[in-house]
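Sorry to interrupt, but I need a hand with the structure work. Could you write out one complete protein record for me, on any chain you like? Could you add the entry underneath, on a fresh line?
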Amino acid sequence: MGDARTPVSIRRRFITDTLADYWSAMGGLKETKNHIKSTMTLALGVEKGSLIDLETTGRPNIDNEHEVITLGYFHGNELVVIQRKSKEKDLFYDEIKRILRQLPKPFYSYNADFERSVME
C-alpha cells in the first residue's frame, strides 16, 4: 500500500478498491444509478426478525435537516448494506421503504430510538 509519504488520494483509492474487491468476492457488489448494494452471506444469523441500521447526515429532532444515506440490515444469514450515491433522495427512500416493508419483523437495532425517529 505504500508508506506514510504516499499521497492520501492514492491510499484512499487503494482502500476503496480493496473493499470493493472484497465485497464482490464475498457475495456481491451491485451498483445502480441511485445506489450501491453490498451483500454477504455469513455463517451466523438472526433467527427471528431483522437487525437494521440507518446512517444519516444529521440527527432527527435535533438538526434542521437530515437525510438517510445508508441502510444496513441483517436477516437470516444475509448481511446487506445499501449506500445512496445520488443527490436525488426520493428514489432511494422509495427503495428502502419497500425493503423495510418486506423484511421479517420484529426489527432490532443497536440504537432503536434513533432508528425509530428516522423511520417516522
Q: What stands out?
A: Confidence is low (pLDDT under 50) at residues 6-16. The chain is about 35% helix and 35% strand.
